[in-house]
Amino acid sequence: MWIRVALDKNAVHYGNSPEYTYVDGENIKEFYFGDETAKALEEDGFLSEMWSKLDAMFDWGDYEYFHPERCVKFKEWIEQRLKSPADRQLKKVYETMLELSDLAIQNDTGMSFDF
């Protein structure tokens, strides 16, 4: 499972609609997490909350792109999640997601989730 952030506009490739927008190229930062972390995220309610709070209707095996404005909402949501107890593994993952959302906002590029 990958999360990618474009560090400049050249790494964001726009399709005919938002669901065809993707992040790729040399100027990206990416984060990979494996099955064990994915299961822990699912048990923590990550996906179901993404559905309800961010209107991100994807599941494992799906892809989603967040434009910079949506990254602001994602960042705020992750900040709230970090206020509640989480095990060390998930806390590190959420902190990394927070860092990546900051980069996407600062660079005005967006981020992609490839589950």
Strand order of the largest sheet: 4-1-6-5
Tally of DSSP helical segments: 4
| Proportion in β-strands | 15-25%
Rg from Cα: 13 Å
Beta-strand segment tally:
6
Order of helices and strands: EEEEHHEHHE
Alpha-carbon distance between the two ends: 5 Å
- The 3D shape can be described as globular
Low-confidence stretches: none
Helix and strand composition category: alpha+beta
User: Can you give the helix content as a percent range?
Assistant: 40-55%
What does this structure look like?
There is one protein chain. Helix 3 (68-83) runs antiparallel to helix 4 (88-106). 21% of the residues are buried. 46% of the residues lie in helices and 19% in strands. It is of the alpha+beta class and 115 residues long. The N and C termini lie close together (5 Å). The chain has a 4-stranded antiparallel beta sheet with strand order 4-1-6-5. It is built from 4 helices and 6 strands; from the N terminus they run E-E-E-E-H-H-E-H-H-E. The protein has helices at 35-43, 46-54, 68-83, 88-106, and strands at 2-6, 12-13, 22-23, 28-32, 63-66, 111-114.
